[in-house]
Structures are given as structure tokens and as C-alpha cells.
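User: Earlier you gave me the apo prediction for this protein. Now I'd like the version with MTE bound, so I can compare the two side by side. Same sequence as before, with the ligand SMILES added.
Assistant: Got it. Here's the input I'm using:
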Amino acid sequence: MTSSSRRYTIPGSDPARLVTSANPVGRRDFLRTGAAIASAAVSGVVGAAVPARAAESAAPWQKVPGTPAGAYGQPSEFEKSVTRHVIRAYPEIAPGVGSTLSPIQSFHGTITPSGLHFVRNHNGTPSIDPAQHRLLIHGLVKRPLMFTVAALSRYPTITRTYFIECAGNSGRNLAPQPQQISAGVLHGLISNTEWTGIPLSLLLEEAGLEPGAAWLLAEGADSASMSRSVPMEKALDDAMIALYQNGERLRPDQGYPVRLFLPGWEGNMNVKWLRRLKVTDGPTHTKDETSKYTDPLRDGKALQFTYEMGVKSVITQPSSGMKLDGYGFHEISGMAWSGAGRIRRVEVSTDGGTTWKDAALHGQQLSKSVVRFRFPWEWNGAPAVLQSRATDEKGNVQPARAVWLARYAVDARFHNNSIASWELGADGSVKNVYA
Ligand SMILES: Nc1nc2c(c(=O)[nH]1)N[C@H]1C(S)=C(S)[C@@H](COP(=O)(O)O)O[C@H]1N2
Ligand SMILES: [Mo]
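And here is the structure of the complex with MTE:
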């Protein structure tokens, strides 16, 4: 702790006063520290203010030996409620079709734990034996190549942290009435992961592009045979053949053993269980890109091939379904990301967008990656509407809901990056609202 942070002490005469969310550190002590205070400094002070004798009577778990560590670690048994939300579109006829949403309301950093990564499957997660899986690169190439997973694992790799977001994320916030469901069920088709893999340009270079090679057809080995067309420009830019997720092999739900990763581009194009890349002279117009992922506009036209995910943010604490346990200090916090590059700024409004103030950005501010924003706030107990607005390094600003709705047709379902609003009632309850 720095000497300056020692100034803050816990109010009250009992030096071992228990600091809980219901019995917080005095609000004047918080305010004195100013907006720049980091929550880490506060908790550090709390720790320092409790005398050593508070720890003298041993807790039950100090009196028995602990359990031996298991072969694969699991979260605390007290965190069992932090799970993905499973939605099965056709539970009877095709149980593998659906989405499994990340509980973003429970996240506090920037990385999505692998077991809580969102999943969007068009026909379930295949069980693939890596010894039998192959990746084929063919079409307009000088040398068609077939790779085993073992062969791929011998290539030089890169490690990058990127978000992936389904184009349908936040589609539930296009319902006629705001739904009272958690932030994760509303906006949880987003995850942020450290991916390790091979630059796709390396493999394409090895295959050798023929003249006219302008697109790729990427095809998955699942029973949905998910396939999408990818412009060569992206393939030669930052596209990756991902093999690892947060340091271990890809999870089956994320495409084990091989996935195409296209940083910042709509989730659907990141073909999992990748089995084939065919180099072509134009887009293939596969079933997956003609039946879906088109964005109808107000003027009767439609956007096709909307690849880049728009600049976006969402407040995760507090968020719908939560309840603030009293007025006073509360940290407003959330996630922001952009498919165009780095997040430069996140502003927070507590009055429904009338006034905005800058939030602090935490974590590495990487390109096409989630940043965490935090905003210290003193709630005076009056109803409030909380919003966040992100700006990226290209100057793209997250649109207001009304602006987004004015652009897209009423039946548009994808790419909803508009500002989301939480209404805080006088009783501390937090509701999803359209503002
Ligand atoms: N082979 C295959 N790839 C796929 C899909 C699929 O169903 N099959 N779903 C796509 C969709 S719609 C999205 S949003 C992302 C989701 O990636 P995740 O499940 O790893 O989060 O994968 C994409 N890649
Ligand atoms: Mo998706």
C-alpha cells in the first residue's frame, strides 16, 4: 500500500468492524478519495485496518487437512450458480441446435473462463478424434495441402487475445417489450479469450495462391457443415488457425481440434471444427450466408456480408435482476469491445443519456479485445437510468437505441450494438428498459 492510501480508515470505534456489502466502509471516506480511487486501494486499506487478533480464533477449515488437489481444477463449490444459460431451439428434434450464453453479469475482468465461453451451435458439438481429423487447403492453389493436427501443431504459432461475438447477440433487446432477464441472457453471446494458433497467411503461402484467388470457402466438420465465404484480404491479414484457448487445447464447444479465427468479425464466420479451406475467385453463397446473417434496412435494402462487429459496451454491474443493497458508493462496471480495433473511451450516464462522464478503462486495451470499464458512483437513492457508450480508435461511437432502430428494418435481428439501459428503482432493483 502507498502511504497516501493509509489515510483511509474504517469509521466506528470497533477496530475489527466487519466490512460487508450491507455494512460498507463509510461513504465520506470513499468520497474523500475522489473519483480516481481504485477499488484495490480500498480493499487494501480495509485489510490493514483489521487488527491481527481478529484472525486468532481458527475457522473450522483450519482444523482439518484440506482435500488433495484434483487432476483438473474446478471452481469453488460456493460458485456453482455461476453457469452459462442454455437455450435449445428445438429440444425434441435437434437438441444440439441453440446457444449457451456467458454469465457476463458475474464476470469482473476481461478474460472469459473457457468453461463459461458462450456456445452457438447449428447442430451440436461433434466429438472429433484429433488423430483422424484433417484440414484440407485446396482450390486455386499451386499445391493442395492436407494437414493432420499433429502437423499443424509443428508450425510457428502466435498468441492473441480477441473477443468473439455472435451476430445475434443482444437480439433479445429487439423484442417489443424489454425482457426482464439477466445481462448474460440478453447480451452474453460474447466472450474474450487468449487464442493461440497459426497465422492463416503462413499456410496459404505454403499452398501458394493462384492468380484470381480472392476468397476462401471455410467448412466445418460438424453435422451442420457450417460454411462461410471469407475475403482473401482478411485471410492474409490477422486470420488465425486456432489450436489453443487460454493456454490449453480448444474446448470441444469452441471447435476442437481446429478452428478458423477471424478477429473482430461476426461470430458465425469463425468456423469451428475446420476441415476445409477452398480458395475461390468469389464468394460461394453458402446456405449459412444466404439464409441468415443479412441485415434488412429501413429503406428496403439489405446489408449482406456485414463482417465487422460494431463498437459496443454493456454495464454488467449492476444489471437487470440485481438489487443494490443501499445507497452510497457503488462501482458501475462493464465490458466494451469493437471489431474495428481498440476501445479508446467508455462514457457512463446515470441520468438516461442526458449527461456523460468518462469511465476508467482497465486491463490491456488490446485491439479487437474486451476492455473492462469502471466508474465509481455515489447513489443517492433516487431512481436512475444507467447507460454506457463506447468509442473505438477509428472514431466509431456506439449508437443510441433510437438511432440504431431508425437504420434497420423492424425484422432486423443481427448486429444490435445500440446502447443498453438499466433502470434503477428507489428500492435498489435493476430492470431492463428501453431508453
Ligand atoms: N462448424 C461450425 N462453426 C461455427 C458454428 C457452427 O454451428 N458450426 N457456429 C458459428 C456461430 S453462429 C458462432 S456465433 C460462433 C460461436 O463460437 P463459440 O461457440 O466458440 O462461442 O461459431 C461459429 N462457428
Ligand atoms: Mo452466431
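For your comparison, keep in mind: The chain has three domains: 6-49, 119-292, 312-433.
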